[in-house]
Amino acid sequence: MQTTYSERCGFGMLLVGTARRWRAAVDAHLAAQGLSDATWAPLLHVARAEQGLSQKELAARIGIDGSSLVRLIDILASKGLLERQQDATDRRANRLKLTPAGRRLVDAIQQSLLQVESSLLAGIDERTLQQLTHALEQIDRRIAIVREQQGSAL
């Protein structure tokens, strides 16, 4: 059976809408702890990178420009959550790493995210969740390929 244009369009709209509502639920839960998307998301990205991230890498991962990122890093550093360390291979670059306080906060954020995720995914069996995760990973890889082919136009 051939998929129609409207079914494909419907999928994209559902995906975007679901992602927005998911993000709103996460943001609301973390806002109760005094955290905003601008603070928790960058910390999680840095935490997941064993060797830290360059400012350029972090900007790409969270989708903001370099000047906005510098202000954000300054805020997180002033709160004692993040530190800049000179890159061992490129003296012109900094690697961003969590401080011990940043690590503790990330641990709390991850617990909060687990609570939200458990609530939002209640009733979905493990097999279905694995299939959905696999499909989303395929879509994400395809987006990366198309972006590269089109010079990051997507």
Automatic annotation (TrEMBL):
PROSITE patterns: HTH_CROC1 (PS50943), HTH_MARR_1 (PS01117), HTH_MARR_2 (PS50995)
SUPFAM superfamilies xref list: Winged helix' DNA-binding domain
GO MF annotation terms: DNA binding; DNA-binding transcription factor activity
Keywords annotated in UniProt: DNA-binding, Transcription, Transcription regulation
Family annotation (InterPro entries): Cro/C1-type_HTH (IPR001387), HTH_MarR-typ (IPR000835), Tscrpt_reg_MarR-type_CS (IPR023187), WH-like_DNA-bd_sf (IPR036388), WH_DNA-bd_sf (IPR036390)
Domain HTH cro/C1-type residue range list: 44-72
This protein's record includes keyword Transcription regulation: yes
Chain ranges of the HTH marR-type domain: 8-141
Protein name as catalogued: Uncharacterized protein
Organism: Lampropedia cohaerens
